[in-house]
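A.,

Following up on our hallway conversation. C-alpha cells first:
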C-alpha cells in the first residue's frame, strides 16, 4: 500500500511538471531597456476656438516633442510621457533585474517602445486617441515623500482634457482621475491599453514567459495564459471587472476599479502576439471603462511585485493574480498560503536567512509528524505479526471473497490492526511538499535569495549538490526502513530506482525545495532507525543487506 501511494503522488507530480521540463521551447531574446528621454517641460499646446469636443481619428497638425516626466519615491521610479500621458517606464528600485542584457539595474516592467496606459476615448463612432495630444505637466519632475499628485492638461476644441495621477511613497499603486470636457449626455467610453506584455527581467526568460497571463476579477479570478492565444487571435473577456491586469512570474501591471462608487471595467480584449515555440511574450490587452456625461472617470494602477501580503492588504482578491497550485489549486492554494505566511513570519521573527528558515521548517514538520510515524510503525509491526494469519485465511477462503473479507476484518479487529495505518504519515507531508514547489515557483520573497553556495533559492542548484544530497537521503531512509523486513525483490528494486528517479526529477527544481526535502529526509533517519531496530528485536530478524 505504501509503495502504491508513493507512485500515485509521483505520477501526479510528473503529469503536472515533467512535460515542460522535457520539451522546453527555444529561448526568446529579451528586449533591451529603452533609452530615457529628458524631463524638460514642453511648450503649451495652442488653444482652438471654443466649441464642443470634436473627436476625430486624425492627429492635430503639429505636436510638441514628447518628453518624459519622472515620478520617484524610495521604492519606484515611474516615467509618464507628455504625449498622451502614457506610462513609458516603471522601475522598481527594491528589485534587481536578472535579465542577461541588464547589468545590476533595477527591474523595468515596461517593454521597450511599447508604453502602457495608452488610452482613447470613444463617443459613438468617433474616437480620440490621447496619444494624439500633447499634455502640459504640472511639474517637470516629482519626488514622492508624501501623498502628492502629477497633473497633465491638454486642450482639444477649446475644452480641457485633464489627467491627475496621485501617488503615495510606500505604495506601488497610484490613482488616476480624468476629466474630459464637452461630452454629450451619453458620455463616452474609455478604452485603456495595458500594453502587450511585461518586460522579462528574469535569468530564465522561458520560465518567466510560461507565467505570462491576462488576469481579471469578476465574481472570481480568471487567468488567460498568453500561450493559449494564437497570433492575431482576439479573445473578449466579459465583465464587469474589479480589476484587469497582465502578470509575469513575479510582477503585475493592472488597472483597478475597486474603490467605492467607481465604475467597473465593462470588459477586456486580449489579442495574441508573436511567439517563439509554444510560448508567447506578447498579447495586447485593453479594458473598457464608462465615462460619465460629466466627463469624469477614476481607476487605479498597480505596477509592482506579486507580493502576497501586499496584495492581500489591497483586497478584492488581488492576491489571486498569483495563484498557487495549477490544476491542484483547490487543495494546494490554502496550504501554500499557510506555508508562505509561516516562512515569512519565521524570517521576520527569528532574523534568519531564508535558507536557515527552510531547514528549521523542515525539522519542525518532521517533529510534528513524529507521533504519527510512531503509531504508523506500531501498526506496521502488528500488521507484520498477523501476516501468517492473513495468509492462512486467504488460502482457506480464496474462492469465497465475501467470507474472506469478513475473516480478515475479524483478524484486524482482534489484533487492533489498521491496514491503512502506515499511509497517513506518508501522505500528510506531501501537500506541504507540493505547496513548496509552487511557493518557490511563484513567491517573489525567494527571488534572488542566496544561501551558502546557492545563488538563488528559487532556482536550481547550479552544482546539483542539493538534489544529490536529497536523493542520497531518500536512499538511506528507505534502506533503514527495510531493516528487519522479510526479503522482497520488489522493495529491493524500488530502493534503488526511486531515489535515482527523484534525484533526476528534482535536478531542475528550486534549490529551496530540494533543501527542505533533504533536511526532512535526514531528520527522519534516526527515528526510522530506532523503529527498525525495534521491529528487528520483535521479529528476531537480522538487518537486510
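Then the amino acids I'd put at each of the 545 positions:
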Amino acid at each position: 500500500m505504501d509503495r502504491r501511494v508513493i507512485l500515485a503522488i509521483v505520477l501526479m507530480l510528473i503529469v503536472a511538471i515533467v512535460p515542460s521540463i522535457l520539451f522546453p521551447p527555444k529561448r526568446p531574446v529579451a528586449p533591451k531597456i529603452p533609452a530615457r528621454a529628458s524631463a524638460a517641460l514642453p511648450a503649451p499646446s495652442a488653444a482652438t476656438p471654443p466649441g464642443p469636443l470634436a473627436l476625430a481619428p486624425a492627429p492635430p497638425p503639429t505636436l510638441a516633442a514628447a518628453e518624459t516626466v519622472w515620478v520617484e519615491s524610495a521604492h519606484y521610479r515611474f516615467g509618464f510621457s507628455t504625449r498622451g500621458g502614457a506610462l513609458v517606464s516603471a522601475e522598481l528600485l527594491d528589485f534587481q533585474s536578472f535579465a542577461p542584457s541588464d547589468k545590476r539595474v533595477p527591474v523595468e516592467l515596461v517593454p521597450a517602445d511599447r508604453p502602457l496606459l495608452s488610452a482613447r476615448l470613444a463617443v459613438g463612432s468617433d474616437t480620440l486617441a490621447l496619444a494624439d495630444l500633447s499634455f502640459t505637466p504640472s511639474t517637470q519632475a516629482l519626488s514622492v515623500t508624501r501623498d502628492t499628485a502629477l497633473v497633465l492638461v491638454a486642450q482639444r476644441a477649446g475644452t480641457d482634457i485633464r489627467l491627475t495621477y496621485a501617488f503615495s511613497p510606500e505604495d506601488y499603486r497610484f490613482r488616476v482621475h480624468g476629466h474630459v470636457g464637452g461630452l454629450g449626455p451619453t458620455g463616452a467610453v474609455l478604452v485603456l491599453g495595458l500594453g502587450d506584455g511585461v518586460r522579462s527581467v528574469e535569468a530564465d526568460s522561458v520560465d518567466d514567459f510560461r507565467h505570462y497571463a491576462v488576469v481579471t476579477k469578476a465574481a472570481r479570478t480568471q487567468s488567460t495564459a498568453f500561450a493559449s492565444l494564437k497570433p492575431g487571435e482576439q479573445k473578449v473577456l466579459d465583465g464587469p471587472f474589479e480589476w484587469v491586469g497582465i502578470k509575469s512570474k513575479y510582477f503585475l501591471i493592472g488597472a483597478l476599479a475597486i474603490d467605492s462608487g467607481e465604475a467597473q471595467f465593462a470588459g477586456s480584449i486580449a489579442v495574441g502576439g508573436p511567439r517563439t515555440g509554444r510560448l508567447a511574450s506578447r498579447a495586447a490587452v485593453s479594458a473598457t471603462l464608462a465615462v460619465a456625461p460629466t466627463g469624469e472617470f477614476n481607476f487605479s494602477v498597480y505596477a509592482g511585485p506579486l507580493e502576497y501580503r501586499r496584495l492581500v492588504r489591497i483586497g478584492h482578491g488581488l492576491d489571486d493574480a498569483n495563484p498557487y497550485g495549477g490544476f491542484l489549486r483547490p487543495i494546494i492554494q490554502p496550504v501554500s498560503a499557510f506555508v508562505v505566511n509561516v516562512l515569512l513570519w519565521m524570517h521576520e521573527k527569528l532574523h534568519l536567512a531564508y535558507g536557515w528558515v527552510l531547514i528549521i521548517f523542515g525539522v519542525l514538520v518532521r517533529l510534528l509528524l513524529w507521533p504519527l510515524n510512531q503509531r504508523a510503525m506500531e501498526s506496521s509491526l502488528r500488521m507484520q505479526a498477523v501476516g501468517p494469519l492473513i495468509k492462512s485465511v486467504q488460502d482457506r477462503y480464496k474462492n469465497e471473497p465475501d467470507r474472506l473479507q469478513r475473516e480478515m476484518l475479524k483478524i484486524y479487529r482482534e489484533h487492533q490492526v489498521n491496514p491503512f495505518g502506515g499511509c497517513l504519515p506518508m501522505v500528510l507531508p506531501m501537500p506541504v511538499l507540493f505547496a513548496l514547489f509552487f511557493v518557490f515557483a511563484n513567491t517573489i520573497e525567494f527571488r534572488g535569495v542566496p544561501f551558502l553556495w546557492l545563488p538563488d533559492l528559487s532556482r536550481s542548484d547550479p552544482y546539483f549538490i542539493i538534489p544529490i544530497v536529497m536523493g542520497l537521503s531518500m536512499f538511506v531512509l528507505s534502506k533503514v526502513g527495510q531493516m528487519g523486513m522479510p526479503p522482497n525483490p520488489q522493495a529491493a528494486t524500488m530502493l534503488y530506482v526511486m531515489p535515482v528517479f527523484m534525484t533526476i526529477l528534482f535536478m531542475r527544481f528550486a534549490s529551496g525545495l530540494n533543501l527542505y526535502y533533504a533536511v526532512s529526509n535526514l531528520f527522519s533517519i534516526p527515528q526510522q532507525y530506532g523503529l527498525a531496530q525495534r521491529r528487528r528485536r520483535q521479529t528476531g530478524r537480522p538487518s537486510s543487506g
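Residues 1-9, 11-52, 56-61 have pLDDT under 50 and may be disordered. Curious whether your intuition agrees with the design.

B.
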